[in-house]
Amino acid sequence: MATQIVMDHNGDNRYEFAPHDPTSLANADERFKELVASGFTAAVRTSSGKPVVTHKFDPAAEETLFFPRLVGG
After folding, report:
1. Closest Cα partner for 41 from 50, 49, 51?
2. Residue 1: burial class (beta carbons within 10 Å; 0-12, 13-18, 19+)
3. How confident is the model at residue 73 (pLDDT cuts 50, 70, 90)?
4. For 53-61, which contacts have Cβ atoms below 8 Å and span 24 or more sequence positions?
5. Beta pairing class for 11-17 and 2-8
6. Is residue 14 within 8 Å of residue 4, measured between CB atoms?
7. How many angstroms separate the CA atoms of 72 and 52, rounded?
8. Structural domain spans, the chain
9. Which residues lie below 8 Å from residue 42, measured CB to CB, with a gap of 6+?
10. Is the distance from CB of 16 to CB of 2 less than 8 angstroms?
11. What predicted TM-score, i.e. pTM, was given to this entire model?
């Protein structure tokens, strides 16, 4: 199972999906697009453990983290 982790002002929500299940995969792809369109930044961890910002849904990523756009003041 792969996981999408969405950080927000309430903490985090985790959404697991099965990369080989077409319905689960479609839901995860749609969630990715909706979150990015609403201003979230998506990042995946590379094999070396470093986070990298991504702009495309990667069904092979074990974990994708979404964090809201930061507003400075």
Report:
1. 51
2. exposed
3. low
4. 57/28, 57/29, 57/32, 57/33, 59/2, 59/19, 59/25, 59/28, 59/29, 60/19, 61/2
5. antiparallel
6. yes
7. 22
8. 2-67
9. 32, 35, 36, 53, 54, 55, 64, 65, 66
10. yes
11. 0.89
Residue range 51-56: mean pLDDT, rounded: 94
Q: Which residues pair with 2 in a beta bridge?
A: 17
CA distance 68 to 38: 9
Confidence of residue 72 (pLDDT cuts 50, 70, 90): low
- DSSP-based three-state secondary structure for 14: strand
Q: What are 3-39's pLDDT values in tens digits? A: 999 998 889 999 999 999 999 999 999 999 999 999 9
